[in-house]
Design goal:
With 178 residues, the protein is mainly alpha-helical. Helix content is 56%, strand content 7%. The strands form 2 sheets. It has a two-stranded antiparallel sheet. The radius of gyration is 25 Å and the shape is flat.
Length: 178
């Protein structure tokens, strides 16, 4: 299916509400397949930008849905002949709905994920290893870190040119003199 601006705009509008692309493709009359939409994204930078903005807005809409679900206690109790009874099944379902949305948001959008980074700085943000030579730096990093990922980075540091430091995944470093 050829790119159609009206269809593209309708898709972006619905993505901005937090609706998944697959659901849009199933329910929007005349909508192309998700594979076609991904082709449009790859072939049309303006559409790709529109979709990226729509996704960010849609992620915020999903986060707002989480608050709405959490704040709605209207079905936490059911009326029985003995009076109101706590509906644990409904509360657990609401909890699952929230957790599922939050888990997906954390994968889709870094704004909603846990930030895990290790920053190596000295006092007052100064360079931690600024005055260390290559051997001292290797010894210090080996003492502080032991994951296989860091071990690979250390190995490449041993092979690096003097003054060069390979990127350490998940680690922000400043190394050098002055």
């Amino acid at each position: 299916m050829a790119y159609d601006e009206a269809t593209a705009n309708a898709i972006a509008e619905r993505i901005a509400t937090g609706e998944p692309l697959e659901a849009i493709c199933r329910t929007l009359p005349g909508a192309p397949t998700s594979r076609t939409i991904h082709s449009w994204i790859n072939d049309n930078p303006a559409f790709a930008s529109d979709i990226a903005r729509a996704r960010a807005v849609g992620h915020d809409a999903i986060a707002a849905d989480c608050l709405t679900i959490a704040d709605d206690s209207s079905r936490d109790y059911v009326q029985t002949e003995d009076g109101p009874r706590f509906d644990a099944e409904h509360v657990q379902r609401a909890k699952l709905r929230i957790e599922t949305r939050l888990k997906l948001l954390s994968k889709w959008d870094k704004r909603y994920g846990d930030r895990t980074a290790l920053e190596l700085t000295g006092a007052n943000g100064s360079d931690l290893f600024a005055n260390l030579g290559k051997a001292e730096l290797l010894a210090e990093l080996s003492r502080r870190m032991s994951t296989p990922e860091i071990a690979r980075a250390l190995q490449s540091l041993q092979q690096a040119q003097p003054g060069a430091l390979p990127a350490l995944p998940g680690v922000a470093t400043k190394v050098g003199k002055g």
